[in-house]
Design brief:
Elements lengths: L1 H37 L5 H10 L19 H6 L3 H20 L4 H14 L5 H13 L1 H11 L20 H21 L3 H19 L6 H21 L5 H12 L4 H24 L2 H8 L3 H11 L2 H24 L4 H16 L6 H6 L1 H34 L28 E4 L4 E13 L3 E13 L5
Antiparallel strand pairs: 1-2, 2-3
Helix pairs in contact: 1-15, 4-7, 4-8, 5-6, 5-8, 6-7, 6-8, 8-9, 8-10, 9-10, 10-18, 11-18, 12-15
Length: about 475
């Protein structure tokens, strides 16, 4: 009997020690999380959006930088209220839906177009023809889209309360508007109307720039993809004939500030904000509110919510949130620098993640790949912008001199005195003149992150083929 009593007391003592140790560890972890999160500042795009929704004049806020040209000028110039601004966008989006309503193959064609935009490649011929037919059958729609591009942002009121699960339905509609403009640009240049083609292309880039400063974190990636499609359209346009110097200067002026590094840093911070919003809901919001926001219905949904609120799960979440916030802060700091300068630092972060604690597994698998991919997208974007700028400058040189230059340094004057370096390598872009054509290329092994293979490299080649016309 005494032995059983001793064993029971020993069990209670061990249980109490384990509970006490866990409680102390949880308290320390929570204090560390609060200290880490306290340094986080709300992204400037979200601050501006909240001010706009309240009818206040948007300002930079704590973390905001100057937005790209024309991005926010439209709403301010017309003094539109959020409802009026949203109504203008909604009206055009509804016109777009009505235009597609008459086609039985609309769903497949639209999906094909958005998929092509997603990978930054040329539209399938059938999809391109369908978009052109859509414009021909609805000329008023094209004029409305062209006018809408001048409006700028913000676009529509946005509810970010769901964190990562928040949705911005207008992004898809804006993508389609940009695709329609790109298809129109190709059709106009093919018909010899290069000036209108370039103007449509500039309008598509304005949509992209509007998305660059949108508070929804995925909007920036959409902006990057629009630029990549526009780059291909511009190559075709330049190959169809000489670009007038006035149009070339307008293009170069638009592209000069198109890296949008400040907006990219803000996009990273918006992703961080969305993750923190979601974790905060799990930690603090009533169960009924979480069910409503995230559609976590039924026994499984409720059980999952309560499971996430258990002390061990809360401890694990707090550890991963602290790690994630620190990781995001490092990436936000890197975003203001050229990609080729941050390559070694991104590699260092990846190596640290490879040898990191298993307690960081959730952040490592779920969020780190997203951050790495966003950095890669930005590197591709900057290379795409560079190739567009240099390609246009080469066409200007050819129209004035009758032939392409032997080296890129000869077009430095057109580019403002400096030829940009390869975003991936920090070296000059590969340039090969070929008589009445040329090849311009960016190439480099860039970072990518695979949770299974951990650290790996991927060869990314972006190119611009100019000329291709007979002498």
């Amino acid at each position: 009997m005494k032995k059983q009593h001793w064993m029971f007391m020993a069990f209670i003592t061990v249980l109490a020690l384990a509970f006490g140790t866990c409680s102390v560890f949880q308290l320390i972890t929570e204090q560390e999380r609060e200290r880490t999160v306290a340094h986080f500042k709300k992204p400037g795009s979200i601050i501006r959006h909240e001010q706009w929704m309240k009818g206040e004049r948007p300002s930079g806020g704590d973390t905001a930088e100057s937005p790209p040209p024309d991005v926010h000028a439209g709403a301010a110039a017309e003094a539109l209220t959020p409802d009026e601004q949203c109504a203008k966008y909604t009206d055009v989006f509804e016109q777009l839906e009505r235009a597609w309503a008459g086609r039985s193959d609309a769903a497949d064609l639209r999906r094909s177009g958005l998929n092509s935009l997603g990978v930054g490649c040329d539209l399938p011929t059938a999809t391109e023809v369908a978009f052109e037919q859509l414009v021909q059958a609805n000329p008023a729609l094209l004029q409305s889209i062209r006018a809408l591009a001048e409006l700028g942002g913000p676009i529509c009121p946005l509810d970010l309360s769901k964190g990562l699960y928040s949705d911005a339905p207008y992004v898809r509609s804006l993508q389609e508007c940009a695709l329609i403009l790109c298809c129109s640009a190709k059709a106009e240049t093919r018909q010899g109307n290069l000036e209108q083609g370039i103007q449509d292309l500039l309008a598509a880039l304005k949509f992209a720039d509007t998305l660059a400063c949108d508070p929804y974190w995925m909007s920036f990636s959409t902006h990057v993809r629009i630029y990549r499609v526009a780059s291909r359209v511009l190559q075709d346009g330049c190959a169809s004939g000489d670009v007038p110097r006035e149009l070339a200067d307008e293009l170069l002026a638009r592209l000069r500030g198109a890296y949008h590094r400040e907006a990219f840093a803000d996009s990273l911070a918006s992703f961080e904000y969305s993750v923190m919003q979601m974790l905060s809901d799990v930690r603090e919001s009533p169960v009924s509110e979480i069910q409503r926001r995230y559609d976590a219905t039924g026994i499984v949904g409720v059980a999952g919510i309560w499971g996430l609120r258990s002390p061990p799960a809360q401890l694990f979440i707090s550890i991963n949130e602290s790690h994630f916030v620190e990781l995001c802060s490092r990436f936000v700091e890197l975003a203001s620098r050229p990609p080729y300068e941050t390559r070694s630092l991104v590699d260092q972060i990846q190596r640290e993640e490879e040898g990191g604690s298993l307690l960081h597994w959730f952040a490592d698998v779920k969020f780190t790949p997203v951050l790495i991919e966003m950095m890669l997208d930005q590197a591709k974007h900057e290379a795409t912008v560079d190739l567009m700028r240099i390609g246009v400058a080469l066409e200007v040189y050819r129209s004035e001199k009758g032939t392409y230059p032997e080296t890129l340094e000869e077009v430095a004057g057109v580019l403002g005195g400096v030829v940009p370096l390869d975003a991936f390598t920090g070296k000059p872009y590969l340039y090969e003149p070929r008589g009445h054509s040329f090849v311009l290329q960016s190439s480099g092994t860039v970072w990518c992150y695979d949770p299974e293979q951990r650290h790996s490299g991927r060869l990314v080649v972006l190119s611009w083929r100019g000329g291709q016309r007979s002498p």
